[in-house]
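I would like you to sit down with the pair of lines that follows and say whether tokens and residues agree.
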Amino acid sequence: MASRKDIYWGSEREWLAPTENRYDSDKDRASLENPLAAVQMGLIYVNPEGVDGNPDPLKTAQDMRTTFARMSMNDEETVALTAGGHTVGKCHGNGDATTLEDEPEAADVKEQGLGWRNPKGNGNAGDTVSSGIEGAWTTNPTQWDHGYFELLLNHNWALTKSPAGAWQWEPTDIKEEDRPLDAHDPSVRRNPIMTDADMALIKDPVYREISEKFHNDPAYFDEVFAKAWFKLTHRDLGPKSRYLGADVPSEDFIWQDPIPAGNADLNADDIAALKSQILDSDLSRRELIITAWDSARTFRASDYRGGANGARIRLAPQKDWAGNEPEQLQRVLEALTRIQSDFDKDVSLADLIVLAGNTAIEQAANDAGIEVTVPFTAGRGDAEAAMTDTESLQT
């Protein structure tokens, strides 16, 4: 299977391979190899049937906690996303696993995104097979309501298997009117189902406490889910300045890496004066260039995080990273901060770090007999520690 060369999916060469090699210790599910978040090759989050396909809600809870933490989600956000995401829709597994054709990744291009081709019946609609689990989570799976926690917390659940042979949980004590209508035949009602991940929300004591809180305060659940869902779907879009449209929220969130506006009004004389002060400092060209590079090299286009804007290199945890040579970095930052304080106009440390690197390159080229002017645009701001999601930078 061909895949992008710039993405590390894990060392496995087999789809849904056993997960033990992804961990320093299989008994410590928090030891998942960095930078992975999915616990198993081929999955987005966790295995819905249980760890390695073996039902155990408490162990699945460990996987959920690790996976969602790698996406910068806390326990409350994890419960909200699981419950909210399972409030609508259903799982598809109404087919005999032994008769299914090639898995989607190995099927013809025209079959992509449609699940397994199922020779039974129509092969679609009520005969669709994707996860292999079959059924809806709630009584009204086409409506946003609070029935998810109502069912999960107020019924006894037994382990069973879907028509496709996947492990799932079904209630043993449900009233007929609480069973959801069949998605394709409204004259029939089916049992609701829960995955092992759903059961983790009532078996793990921390998750259960959160679940009960959401159940008792639906308005609070709605609020937490809305913010967590917005975070999940927007966290890779970068700073808020990249958002468009009338629905952009006015609130700033720490996961957006907010940065105050800088001063973009520095003129040519201001820049020349700053360059002169930089050259008059006792900092070497090497120190200036390395600091500018270290500040900029954290940028990644996949989610627009990092980079020189914000000068987060002066904040934890970046200021302590061994690759940033902390002792040298502190010396450079102290010198540039003095220049910043003495200058008669507002200038950010983020701009000074970049300008200092440019100045050092220009001087080095000039000493070699080459006249070079490195373009510089002012306007970067300086983020504060309260604006920095320190924990996510450490994972």
About this structure: The mean pLDDT is 94. The domain at 268-394 is CATH 1.10.520.10 (Peroxidase; domain 1). The chain has two domains: 19-225, 268-394. The radius of gyration is 27 Å.
